[in-house]
Amino acid sequence: MGSAAADALLPLDPETFAAESHAVVDFLDGYYRNIQSYPVRPDAELGRLRTLLPDAAPEDGEPVDVVLEDVRRHIVPGLMHWQSPSFFAYYPMNASTAGFAGEMLSAGLNVVPFAWAASPAATELEAVVVDWMAKLVGLPERFLFSGGGGGVLQGSTCEAVVCTLVAARDRALIMLGGHEGILRLVVYASDQSHSTFQKGARIVGIPPANFRVIQTSAASSYGLTADSVRRAVDADVASGLVPLYLCATVGTTGLGAVDPLRELGEVARRYDMWLHVDAAHAGSSLICREFQDCLDGAELADSVSMNPHKWFLTNMECCCLWVASPAALTSALSSNPEYLNNISTENAAAMDMVDYKDWQIALSRPFRAMKLWVVLRRYGAVAMRAYIRRHIDMARWFELELEADERFEVVVPRRFSLVAFRLRPRHEGDDVEALNRRLLMAINSSTGRAFLTHFVVDNKFIIRLAVGGAMTEMQHVRAGWVLVQEKAKEVGATPGRY
């Protein structure tokens, strides 16, 4: 594109928009048709891309087909292919055709619904969608807008955690009579809780020494126990500290453990702590009735979060955060500069209007509700339950295969679609941790046939297989099991020697 073209730049010309959008869709169509031909994990060298791209941005624009060719040649080979059907690492990061359609509508309309007046339909759709999700997962009425609570779509659990910590902090500081009391506030979580809680506590000013990591054990299936929390809280209270915030998890990252919400909720109520329930991944499974008992006691919580972008076919970024008291959130996060008061909202009080800028950290925000709404409309609850159950059945099959092979140990019973396992030692005195590290390295170095990750619990190095990819079918899980067996033999674990 030369200078004359630059002078006549029409960034949203409808004809160009149609042609270039079709080119991108065609490119992605080819990518997904051929995704199984790519190694799940790239064999990438650090700094490779910098050697392939120019040192500076171009002075003149280039045709979209030239740009897409560079994506194909230079970008795609260096990607971890999270949507590969043989991606079993971390937790899945779902995408779907409905998710893409919603994302395209969100990006294409490109509104900024930070306040009701800034985009009324976007704000109201978000309130509708989070209530739909709350009902689907079986949350108590107090988390619905109709029940006095409400929800918001954050970008991630990390953002949801920071927002709830701020709300809990400010509520406590009012009671303590000033901000100097922050040095007395204490946050509690288990050794299985996500690290984002420690990060969030630091961000909101809780001293690192006031973050309590409470140990769990195999006796409680690595769930947090009320007795262990009570002991920690009693010791802090005796030292003049103030219990602030307790994290409970439904489906921990490492092992899929489920904390007992009712017992923890009773402890939180006794000490006037904020109780947050983190169901980032496993929350999607709660749409199935057989898992809703995991939320027993949720009526005692102050906030709950789950990520549809993990296991609910909704593209990144989409995290549902529900609070029982929206006022606690908005009083800590609201701001009303004069330049935002230039749109008439004289009927705001009568409308019970929601301004989502006061429910999050940032002012600006994308139209996230559109993509979740399209997923719910396009697939419906029945198909989504079948989708979740299919992954759980695949994980159950993998677990049964492990149990039938004497070389392997299932470290904890499977929870949801996560299987945690490791090789047993062959002989007394064997370095079983090194053996399992070699096994995982062998699996992930197998020309990209699959990708798994690990966790450490009770000083044991374990391997995690998380089933949940949008394109994953039983054949891919079976192929994963064949690969695990093959690599186990390579590292010296031979059947019949145990």
UniProtKB/TrEMBL annotation:
Alphabetical UniProt keywords: Decarboxylase, Lyase, Pyridoxal phosphate
Example GO molecular function: pyridoxal phosphate binding
Domain of life of the native organism: Eukaryota
Key word Lyase present: yes
Residues carrying N6-(pyridoxal phosphate)lysine: 310
Gene3D superfamilies in alphabetical order: Aspartate Aminotransferase, domain 1, dopa decarboxylase, N-terminal domain, Type I PLP-dependent aspartate aminotransferase-like (Major domain)
Cofactor(s) recorded in Swiss-Prot or TrEMBL: pyridoxal 5'-phosphate
GO biological process: amino acid metabolic process; carboxylic acid metabolic process
One term under GO cellular component: cytoplasm
Keyword hit for Heme: no
Entry similarity comment: Belongs to the group II decarboxylase family.
Protein name: Tyrosine decarboxylase
